[in-house]
Amino acid sequence: MVKLSGFADEIADDAKTQIATLNKTGVRHIELRGVEGKGVLDLTADEVASFRGQLQEAGIGVSSIGSPIGKVQIRADLEEHFARFEIALQRAREFAAPYVRIFSFYHENEEAAACRGEVLAFFQRMVARAEAEGLVLLHENESGIFGDVPERCADLLQSIDSPYLRAAFDPSNFISCGADPLQEGWPLLREYTDYFHIKDQVAETRRVVPAGCGDGGLPQILAQAVELGFAGFLSIEPHLKADDPEYGGSGAERFTHAVDGLRRVLSGVGIAEG
Fold first, then answer.
1. C-alpha distance from residue 194 to each of 44, 67, 98 (Å)
2. Which residues are within 8 A (CB) of 2 and not within 5 positions of it... i.e. 6 or more apart?
């Protein structure tokens, strides 16, 4: 069985609409990136307490803190950034989230290989702190960062070699980098993947679409993952455009399209929700 989660800030800014749509779609977890127009790391103590209470009342858990850590230039002030990372760990404790999503740094004006040492050093430091807290960091593949293509994602995960650093596999983001998720990404990363970001993309047009409607290979990847014992979170990240002729509309409508697409994929390959 798999568990559904999602980026509810793509539904709406306000907590009430986020929770109402999660309830309506039957998604029982959230990947917390933002609420009430603020990023998760910028919430005050009172805002944390308020949203945590609303989620608990609705019976909605937090699968991961969708932090922006690592989405800065590798040559930035990393001591200041590490302080932000500590806030991400704090948020995970406050919301009882087992995971914290992170990235592996932009490297503007230089080749990725030139900053590999700095990226690995910062990751080793973050992983040591995560291990001390009993939390798992999830590296998301993303365009423009060190870990954008499958080979560098695998290099990062293999080099750190820790159960406290795992992959959040995002097939659409691999397509954005010109990589085939099924043929190139999955063979290299399946042994490191503990979590999925669910969005799909048509490679030729770069149109983001619900799961199973693009070239992300999600039916095959998810079927293979479950065969290998995966029973974790599938986090819905719609990224659908409001004016899309098939999948547009309000944030709630787009989120619902994305949930429906994923459920069609799961039904088609015989995967049950837990």
1. 30, 17, 11
2. 222, 226, 230, 231, 232, 233, 234, 266, 271, 272, 273, 274
Residues 6+ apart with CB under 8 A from 53: none
Can you state the angle between helices 218-227 and 251-268, rounded to 10 degrees?
A: 60
Burial of 228 (0-12, 13-18, 19+ CB in 10 A): exposed
Q: Where are the domains of the chain?
A: 44-231
| Radius of gyration of the chain measured on its C-alpha atoms | 18
Give 132-173 pLDDT, tens digit per residue.
999 999 999 999 999 999 999 999 999 999 999 999 999 999
Q: What is the CATH number of domain 44-231?
A: 3.20.20.150
How many angstroms separate the CA atoms of 210 and 146, rounded?
A: 27
* Residue type, position 68, single letter: P
- The answer to whether residues 107 and 146 touch, using CB atoms and an 8 Å cutoff, is yes
User: How high does pLDDT run on average in the chain?
Assistant: 97
User: Dihedral angle at the C-alpha atoms of 83, 85, 89, 95, nearest 10 degrees?
Assistant: 110
| Amino acid at position 186, single letter | W
